[in-house]
Amino acid sequence: MSADSGLDILALGAHPDDVEVHVGGLLALAANRGMKAAILDLTSGDLGTRGTAETRRTEAQEAARILGVARLVMDFPDGRFTEDEAHRIRLMAEIRRLRPRVLILPDPEDRHPDHRRAFRLAQEAAYYAGLRNYPCPGVPWRPEALAWVGGENPGRPDLLVDVSAVWERRMAAFDAFGSQFAQDPSLPPTRIAHPAFRRGVLGRAMHWGSLRLCDWAEALWCERPVPLALTRLLARLEDPS
Ligand SMILES: [Zn+2]
C-alpha cells in the first residue's frame, strides 16, 4: 500500500479474524463503493490454540481478498504486546502512514485482554499521531473519528449499518478462517470454534437487522455526540447511487 493512500476506513484488530467477526460487511460495502479501506492486525495470532501464525496469515489475506480490502499484519507479540511507548510509536507511525479518516477499534470491554489493550493502545496512538512535536516517524495525522465494535453481549449500539447486500461475502470472509472457526474434531476445542459462536455472529447481525428493518446489519459504538465523519461514512456506505 502506498505511503500516501489516505484511507477512508481502517479497521484494527488484535488478531487476524477479529475484524471479520464484527465488521466484515461494512468493509465489503466500502469496497463496493470504491472507498479505500484496510484491515490492520496488530499480531499474527501466534498464541492461538489452533492454527500456526503462517496459517492464520494465509487465511487473513484470503479473507481480505474476499472482502475486497487491503490487509496489513504487524508483528506485535500475541498476548504480550503492551501499552508502552515503543508499541504506541510503532502504531502511531502506521496511522501516520495510512492516514485513515475513520478508525474502527476493538471492543474496549471485550472478554479477551488483548482486545481491551488493543483498544486503549490504538485510541492513544490515534490521538498522539496528530501531535506535530511527538517524536515519531511520519507526517502528523489524527483520524477524524473513532468507532468501536461490541463484544459477544453488547448493549445498545450507536450506529447500525445495513450489510444485507454483501452478507454472503461477509460470512465467506469469516469462514475463510478455517483454523479458527471450522467444525473439525481433529483440532482442539475452543470457544470460538464452538458452533454457538458462529450462531452468535449470525444472531447479533439478525437482531441489528431487525432494528434497521433489514436482513442483516452490523453495529458500531462511538463517542457522543456522533462525529460528523461517521454520519457521512454511513450515508456513503448505504447509498447505492
Ligand atoms: Zn482476537
> What is the topology, as strand order, of the major beta sheet?
3-2-1-4-5-7-6
Q: Main β-sheet, in a few words?
A: 7 strands, mixed
Radius of gyration based on Cα positions: 17 Å
CATH class: Alpha Beta
Sketch the topology as an H/E string, one letter per element. EHHEHEHEHEEHHHEH
Question: What is the 3D form?
Answer: globular
Give me the count of strands. Answer: 7
CATH topology-level name: Rossmann fold
Number of domains: 1
- List bound small molecules: zinc ion
Tell me the fraction of residues in β-strands, as a range.
5-15%
Helix/strand/pairing category: alpha/beta
The fourth-level CATH homologous superfamily is: LmbE-like
* CA distance, first residue to last residue: 27 Å
Unreliable sequence segments:
none
CATH architecture annotation: 3-Layer(aba) Sandwich
The number of helices is 9
- Helical proportion, percent range: 40-55%
- Mean pLDDT across residues: 94
Quaternary form? single chain
Structure description:
- With 241 residues, the chain is α/β, with parallel strands linked by helices.
- The protein has a single domain (9-233), classed as Rossmann fold, CATH 3.40.50.10320.
- 42% of the residues lie in helices and 13% in strands.
- The radius of gyration is 17 Å and the shape is globular.
- The two termini are 27 Å apart.
- Bound molecules: zinc ion (ZN).
- Zinc ion is lined by residues 14-15, 18, 112, 114-115.
Walk me through the topology:
Layout: E1 9-13, H1 18-22, H2 24-32, E2 37-41, H3 53-67, E3 70-73, H4 85-98, E4 102-105, H5 113-128, E5 145-148, E6 159-162, H6 167-175, H7 178-181, H8 195-212, E7 217-222, H9 228-238
Parallel strand pairs: 1-2, 1-4, 2-3, 4-5
Antiparallel strand pairs: 5-7, 6-7
Helix pairs in contact: 3-6, 4-5
The chain binds zinc ion.
